Structures are given as C-alpha cells and as structure tokens.
Amino acid sequence: MLQVSELYLQIGDANILNGVTLNADSGDAVGIIGPNGSGKTSLFNCLSGFVFPKSGTIRFKDHDITALPPFSRAERGIGRVFQSFGIFREMTVLENLMVALESRASIWGTFLPWSKGSRSLREEAKGYAAQVGLSEKVQHKAGSLSGGQMRLLEIIRALAFGSELFLLDEPTAGVSPKMKEEVANLISHVQSLGKTTLIIEHDINFVQSFSKRVIVLDQGKVILEGTPDEVRSNERLQEIYFGKRAHNN
Hints:
Layout: E1 2-11, E2 14-24, E3 29-33, H1 40-48, E4 55-60, E5 63-64, H2 70-76, E6 78-81, H3 93-102, H4 116-131, H5 147-161, E7 165-169, H6 177-192, E8 196-200, H7 204-208, E9 213-218, E10 221-226, H8 228-233, H9 235-242
Parallel strand pairs: 3-8, 3-9, 6-7, 7-8
Antiparallel strand pairs: 1-2, 1-4, 4-5, 9-10
Helix pairs in contact: 3-4, 3-5, 4-5, 5-6
C-alpha cells in the first residue's frame, strides 16, 4: 500500500527528515511516536503533499506520488486528519458528510437537492453518522460537538470520502479520556475494512489498543521499530525522551 524510501527533507538550513524509510500494507495500523521536533508532522506533510522532499520516494498503491500535489493524492485515496480540527464548523454534521460524498459523486444530478441521487447521498451520509453515534446530531452545527465527537466526524468523513490511507495526527488531542476509547474503536473499524492508518500519537497505551507496530522518530530518523511492548521496554526510548539528546530537539 505505502512504501517510503530514504526520505530527506530540508527547510532552509535545517535537516528535518534524514532518510526515513517505512512500509505499510493494507489493513496496517502503525503508530508513530517521538519527541517534539522529531519530524513526525513533517513526515505527514511529505506524505500528503504539503511539502516536497529533497530526495527519496513515496509510493502509494504501486505508483510514485512523490511529486504529486495534495489534491491528486487525496483523489488517489490519501486522507489526513489534522491535530487541529479540520471540520466545517458552521455546517451541520450531515452537510460535512454530504460534502465528502458529493466530492466523489459521478453524476451532475446528485448535486440537485430534489434529485434522487441527492436523497440517496443524504441517506448514505446519515448511515455514516450512525456509525459514530451522531445520528441525533446530524442537523447540529459541527462546531457544537464535543472534541471527541468532532474527531469521530473527521475520521468518518475521510472514510465517506473514500480514503484508503488515513494519516491521523494526534487523534486524541482535545478528546476526553472517555471518548478516547470510541476513537480507538473507530480506528479499529477502519482497519478492519482493509484501510491503512498511520497515527502520530504520544500515548503509547492508546496506540497499543489497535496497533501491533510502532515506529519511533528522533531527529528525523527512524530510531526504533517494533511492537508496542518491544518499543516501550527498549532503553533507547527513555534516552530519546529523557536523555541528553531530548533537550536538543
């Protein structure tokens, strides 16, 4: 599904990524952790096309997408959920989902509110809302939702759009402890559909609830890779977060 090879990113005089290599197959859920400044979000920026690497390749579904713009990557099935909520707050929950569905509709009649196609999309959108417990909120403005509900809406909207690779940047940011479990369950559901997810997250316990593989970045490099237990017990993880190098990031 995704192959990243020897990715280097330089911004100004700063080397942000230094030869990152990783692979993810269909249905994989890979947690990406590391201290602040380790290159996690920059990696996602490269994968989604917001910045272009100095060198290296990114292949998605056997196609080289290294030089493609963000909209082309989205059309090919790469969806991103940002740390700051990216929903349309002044639109209703239903409208947020309708936008995702309409963006991949193939007939003009779908966009006419009285058309059969539009009615069908409305029902499909309600079905997606029901999957994340938002049936009673479909006519509410998305901005009125709790942090956890907004995160669920973002992820299910990406699924409605047809994304096959989900880039989730700290999906538990702004989410109550109670809602973390629902977010984890949704990620597991996405994974069960054969979708691939990469998750930037600081809470390794959260990652462990749905992922069998964790990658640790430090100074733009992959330093550790293994199961959550293997990574957690590795002395190098403590050095990265609490050793001398952690103060230099």
